[in-house]
Specification:
This protein has 15 helices and ten strands. The chain starts with a helix and ends in an 8-residue tail after the last helix.
Length: 433
C-alpha cells in the first residue's frame, strides 16, 4: 500500500461522509428494478426485497452471535454497531440480488455497491469503537519501526529537578517497537510498542519514570498508541516539563489477538513472570529509567486495566502507582467455570484469593501507592467494578483518583480519555519538575 494511502485518516467525518454518500447512491441505483434486468419487475422487486431482508438479518445476527452469545469483545454492542451491521448487511444483500439475471454493466455496479456498502458499515463501526485511526493500520502498515536503544545515562543528573534540556533535543517523543524475550517465563509475546520522550533521545538522558501499559482483549500491543492515541498526552506532558515524561512500554500480555491468559501464571503461560521479571529486567537493561518503585507505574484499558490492578495491588514493591480504565473486579475469562479451570486448576479458593480486593484486604495497608481509576459514564458492565475497586483502594491507604468519563461507554474513546487522565494525574506523583 502506498504511504499516502496508508496515511488516510478513516475516522474523519469528511471521509466517512463521502463513503456513505457513494454507498447510498449505488444502493439506490440497485433498488431500481430497471434497466438492466432480465426478469419481470415483480420477480426483480421480490428478489431485491429478499436480498435486503436476508442481508439485514445476517448483519444483525453476526453482531448478536459474536457479541451477545460469544462475548468475543467483552463488552456489549452499541446501537450504532448494530445499526451499522444491519444496514450494511441489507445493502450487500441488495447488491447480491443484482448479480443474478442482470446485464453485465449492472453486475459491475452491483460489485462496486457491495464493496462500498461493506466499507461504509466497517467505517461506521470503526468510528464508534475508535479502533483504527488510519487506513494503513487496518492492514498492519503502521509506519512504526524498531527502536535503536542505548541504556547509557552518561553524566545525567540523578535528580530530575536538576535536568536541563540540551541543545538539539527533539521537541516530541518517539514511538517504536522492540522484541522483549521471555527469558525466564518462556512466554512468547508479540512485539512490544515503546514511547521515548524527548529527554530519553539525547546523549545523556536522565533516569525517567516508566509505565508498563496494556491494551484490551482482543487486541494488539499497538492498540494503546493507535486506538488509545497515547503519544498525544505524553508529548503534552513532555512539552510542559522540559522534555521529561515517562517512558511507556506496552508488552504483549495476551500472546495472540483473542486469548486471555489473565495476567497470571497458569498452564496457558507464565504471564505474571513475564511482566514482573522479563519485561522489568529488559527495561532496566535497555532504557534510561529510574529504579525507584515510586516511579514505576502499570496501566491499562479493559482487560489490560484488570491486569494493572492485579499487578498494582499484588506487587507493591515493584509498582508505586497504577492506572485502570474500565477494569473488572479481577481476572476473568468468559465464564467462572472456565476461568477457575484454566487459571487455578479448578480451585475456586485459589481464584477468590487472587482477586485484587482480596489481595488488598490481606495486605491491609498501601502507604505509598497511587491508584487512578476511570470508566465510561455509560459503561453498564464495568462501571460498578471500577467504583468498588476505588472504594477498597481508599480503605487501604492508597492515594486514589477516580473519574466518570462523560458520554462514553466501553470502547477506545474511553481508553484514550482514561489513560490521558491517568497520566496527567500522576505527573506530580512522579515529581516531574
Amino acid at each position: 500500500m502506498p504511504p499516502w494511502l496508508a496515511a488516510v485518516p478513516i475516522e474523519q467525518s469528511e471521509l466517512l461522509t463521502t463513503v456513505y454518500v457513494i454507498a447510498g447512491v449505488l444502493v439506490l441505483v440497485m433498488l431500481v428494478p430497471l434497466p438492466g434486468m432480465r426478469a419481470s419487475m415483480r420477480t426483480r422487486v421480490g428478489a431485491i426485497a429478499l436480498g435486503a431482508g436476508l442481508g439485514a438479518l445476517l448483519g444483525w445476527g453476526a453482531v448478536w452471535w459474536l457479541v451477545d452469545v460469544q462475548d468475543v469483545f467483552g463488552a456489549p454492542a452499541s446501537t450504532v454497531i448494530r445499526a451499522g451491521a444491519t444496514g450494511a448487511g441489507a445493502a450487500v444483500g441488495v447488491g447480491i440480488a443484482n448479480l443474478i439475471r442482470t446485464r453485465w454493466w449492472r453486475k459491475a455496479v452491483a460489485v462496486v455497491a457491495i464493496v462500498a456498502a461493506a466499507a461504509a458499515g466497517g467505517l461506521v463501526i470503526n468510528r464508534d469503537v475508535a479502533y483504527f485511526p488510519r487506513l494503513g493500520d487496518v492492514f498492519g502498515q503502521t509506519g512504526v519501526k524498531a527502536l535503536a536503544l542505548d541504556a547509557g545515562a552518561g553524566t545525567a543528573p540523578r535528580s530530575l529537578s536538576a535536568w536541563q534540556p540540551p541543545a538539539g533535543m527533539p521537541t516530541t517523543g518517539t514511538v517504536g517497537t522492540a522484541d522483549i524475550p521471555g527469558t525466564v517465563s518462556h512466554w512468547h509475546g508479540r512485539t512490544a510498542w515503546i514511547y521515548l520522550p524527548p529527554a530519553a533521545r539525547v546523549k545523556n538522558p536522565p533516569k525517567l519514570p516508566v509505565v508498563i501499559a496494556f491494551g484490551g482483549q482482543p487486541g494488539y500491543p499497538s492498540d494503546v498508541f493507535l486506538a488509545g492515541d497515547l503519544q498525544k498526552p505524553l508529548d503534552a506532558i513532555a512539552a510542559a516539563h522540559r522534555g521529561l515524561a515517562p517512558i511507556v512500554v506496552v508488552p504483549d500480555q495476551l500472546g495472540s489477538y483473542n486469548v486471555n491468559p489473565m495476567c497470571i501464571n497458569s498452564k496457558v503461560g507464565q504471564v505474571a513472570t513475564y511482566v514482573t521479571v522479563d519485561v522489568r529486567d529488559w527495561i532496566l537493561h535497555h532504557l534510561p529509567v529510574s529504579t525507584s518503585r515510586r516511579e514505576w507505574t502499570v496501566a491499562g484499558f479493559s482487560q489490560g486495566a484488570t491486569c494493572a490492578v492485579q499487578f498494582g495491588t499484588g506487587e507493591p514493591t515493584l509498582f508505586g502507582s497504577f492506572i485502570a480504565v474500565s477494569p473488572e473486579l479481577g481476572p476473568f475469562n468468559g465464564t467462572l467455570a472456565r476461568t477457575i479451570k484454566q487459571g487455578w486448576n479448578g480451585s475456586r479458593a485459589g481464584w477468590e484469593a487472587a482477586q485484587p480486593i482480596a489481595i488488598m484486604e490481606r495486605t491491609k495497608h498501601y502507604p505509598a501507592t497511587a491508584a487512578v481509576y476511570a470508566v465510561g459514564e455509560w459503561d453498564k458492565r464495568y462501571g460498578a467494578d471500577a467504583g468498588a475497586l476505588a472504594v477498597e483502594s481508599r480503605k487501604v491507604g492508597m492515594r486514589v483518583s477516580y473519574r466518570d468519563l462523560t458520554g462514553l461507554a466501553h470502547n477506545w474513546n474511553t481508553g484514550a480519555a482514561g489513560l490521558a487522565y491517568g497520566l496527567h494525574e500522576l505527573v506530580s506523583w512522579w515529581r516531574l519538575p
